[in-house]
Amino acid sequence: MTLRRKTRIIVGMMFLGLIVILYFLSENFLRKQSSAVVISVHEQEVAIASLMLMIVGAGLLFAIVTILLLEKQVLSRLTHISSSVYNIGVTGDISSRVSISGTDELSTLAGTINGMLAALQQSESELRESEEKYRLLAENATDVICAIDMNLRFTYVSPSVKNLTGHSVEE
Predict the structure, then answer these.
(1) Distance between CA 102 and CA 32 in Å, rounded?
(2) Phi and psi for 109 in degrees, rounded to 5?
(3) If 0-12 CB within 10 Å is exposed, 13-18 middle and 19+ buried, where does residue 22 land?
(4) Can you spell out the DSSP letters for 12-61?
(5) What is the C-alpha separation between 96 and 118, in angstroms, rounded?
(6) Residue closest to 18 by CA, chosen among 66, 50, 55
């Protein structure tokens, strides 16, 4: 079930519960008031104020329940994903994975993050293999291989320079 659907169900149930509670409260309240034949204006104002207070109280109760349910269903799980991703970023350990259960959008997000981490880990492994292959090629070649930066300084010189020129790599 998606988070959007869960949220709609929670809010719908809250409103339905609010309507039911208010119906029973107002029925009981109005029965008490209708038993008296003559009701003064002051008593009517008190009755309206009491009914409004009950409505506000029931609304606050359902708002608190809604917030608590959303905290449990969404916010705490989102915080878990965020802290997991932050920890992976801080440690640089791309072999770590974000673990979250469920079949909703947040679990899909965690799965997508895990997929990106796996792809990054795979490309890093391929890069290391490629660097190793070309390092071996450069170190075992009989020709001199060098790399020069933008300031025309040597950043790499292959060991074969000693065989061809008699100078060491550092020179």
Answers:
(1) 49
(2) -60, -45
(3) middle
(4) HHHHHHHHHHHHHHHHHHHHHHHHSS---HHHHHHHHHHHHHHHHHHHHH
(5) 9
(6) 55
User: Do residues 85 and 49 make contact, with C-beta atoms less than 8 angstroms apart?
Assistant: no
Element (H, E) at 94: none
Alpha carbon distances (Å) from 116 to 84, 88, 107, 121, 170: 14, 12, 14, 8, 41
H-assigned helices in the chain: 3-35, 41-70, 76-91, 105-140, 161-165
Best CA proximity match to 168, nearest among 152, 150, 148, 154 = 154
Q: What is the pTM of this model?
A: 0.58
Measured over the CA atoms of residue 147, residue 148, residue 150 and residue 153, the dihedral's sign is positive
pLDDT in tens, 77-136: 889 999 999 999 999 999 999 998 888 888 999 999 999 999 999 999 999 999 998 888
